[in-house]
Amino acid sequence: MGIFRVYKLSTSCVTGKMTADRKTPECVAYILYKQPSATLSGQGYSSDVKYWMPFIGNVGFHSAPWRGSFGGSEYISNGSHGCVNLPTYAAATLYKLVIHRVLDEYIKEGDCCIDATMGKGGDTYYLCSKTGESGKVYAFDVQADALRQTREKLDKHKMNAELILDGHEHMKEYVKEMAVSCIMFNLGYLPGGDHHLATKTNTTIQAVEAGLGMLKTGGIMSICIYSGGDSGFEERDGVLEYLSQLDDRKYFIARQDFPNKKNNPPMPVFIIKL
What we know:
- By secondary structure, the protein is an alpha/beta fold.
- 23% of the residues lie in helices and 26% in strands.
- Helix 3 links the parallel strand 5 (112-115) and strand 6.
């Protein structure tokens, strides 16, 4: 059962300008999804890119055809707004490598899936792209701004999902299908939002328990756990303790740690219902 794949790509790049508001996060992360022909925008800029692969919130790898040079000290005087700018050929190579994302093997067109932590809609978009027009995607968040940003993203790509302004611990009240193929959690807070409005240990565990009950045999749940900083460690420890008590005859659980990395990198966890 293949869960984790490791690829290595060496290329020159340009990271974020070394200021508090533009510095690229120092982290170990996994690519959340890939998207062709995206428009990246922020305060004072809007750029069209051919390849977009976010790894933390709205920070990611992307092609940067407007740049004449990469590498060296370019980031000091002409750094990005936080993303990793790549030459188009390198971005294309990376884009092709991200073919067998772990979840791809478990989702097919027409499936029902749940994004338990909507945020800016990255996972919702990904699930819609996999399930197609004949599928069904539910997405949950407690912040109206998350629904707004997600709806804008989906409308731009002519996709549709049921966006629900409520906590994910209440998902059973909205999702009537009992054969869900994939459920995704990205714990923590809305990138760029109020850090005090973050997922909490008790409601996260309630949501995970509810989701496992709806997951079909052979279905998968992914949980990206952020810890340290504003998030602390309570949620991480509580979720891992809950998962450790699940029957190993019913669930296969794999998690990826980075023991020699600093700053508490995110921990991806995958649960497959047997």
